[in-house]
Specification:
The protein is mainly alpha-helical. The chain has 10 helices and no strands. It folds into 2 domains: 7-105 and 206-234, no CATH class; 126-194.
Length: 234
């Protein structure tokens, strides 16, 4: 018998809200680094190993650029890059939270969670559509890059520096055309799934609090409290 260890999407939504609050509460670099480590471990817990490695590498590179501003503070270019890296680091938890929301919660689970939380449909439906749209947009960007590569177009940093307007045109024009098509497809899919039905939505898997949800919820509260305590003590 397989044991269900999945986390209730309502708990994940609550965790995402805490992430948004913690960004503006933490003051010290040490506490913020601990919080980033906590979020990276959360990605590992949800089996998003690849994304965890990507964010870890990005965090290390950004921290290195940030400290370069202290070593070469007289260089205006490095100082500007250092300030930019600082702001990116401060808002790095947001894309991590987006990964947790988009890759560990399905649209049906999200709508069911909002319904359980008594959130109005005018908020639930646009949010669920946006959740479906972001992964589709990432796939389309990958298809555009593959098409540019087949035609011998340099879509990297060198190509952008050489001809930024042309590269921007090659990416935005097909992307906008595909966005219109994706919007129509998502609208048709939502209508077929009965999104216009005013009655409460039913789910194949009923959302119910389980022991692992309480453990996960308690660990979030405890870890965030510890990090806040460290932030105030340092």
């Amino acid at each position: 018998m397989q044991i269900d260890l999945s986390i209730d999407p309502r708990v994940k939504i609550f965790h995402t809200l805490i992430i948004g609050i913690m960004i503006f509460i933490l003051k010290t670099d040490q506490a913020f680094a601990l919080y980033i480590a906590h979020l990276l471990l959360t990605l590992v817990f949800f089996k998003q190993i690849k994304e965890a490695f990507k964010f870890t590498a990005a965090f290390i590179i950004l921290v290195f650029i940030y400290f370069m501003g202290f070593w070469e503070f007289k260089n205006p270019v490095i100082s500007t890059l250092s300030y930019f890296a600082f702001f990116v680091i401060k808002f790095l938890p947001i894309p991590i939270a987006a990964v947790i929301m988009t890759k560990t919660i399905t649209s049906a689970e999200l709508i069911g969670a909002f319904q359980k939380l008594r959130i109005h449909r005018n908020i639930t439906i646009p949010f669920a559509v946006a959740m479906r749209f972001i992964p589709s947009l990432r796939k389309e960007l990958g298809f555009i890059r593959d098409a540019m590569k087949m035609r011998g177009i340099n879509y990297g940093l060198g190509g952008f520096i050489k001809s930024p307007l042309r590269l921007l045109e090659y990416i935005t024009v097909p992307l906008l055309m595909r966005c219109v098509k994706i919007t129509d497809e998502l609208s048709v899919s939502a209508i077929v799934r009965g999104i216009e039905n005013p009655k409460p939505r039913t789910m194949m898997r009923e959302l119910k609090a389980k022991p692992q949800d309480f453990i996960y919820f308690s660990s979030i509260i405890i870890l965030n409290s510890i990090i806040l305590f460290i932030d105030r003590v340092i």
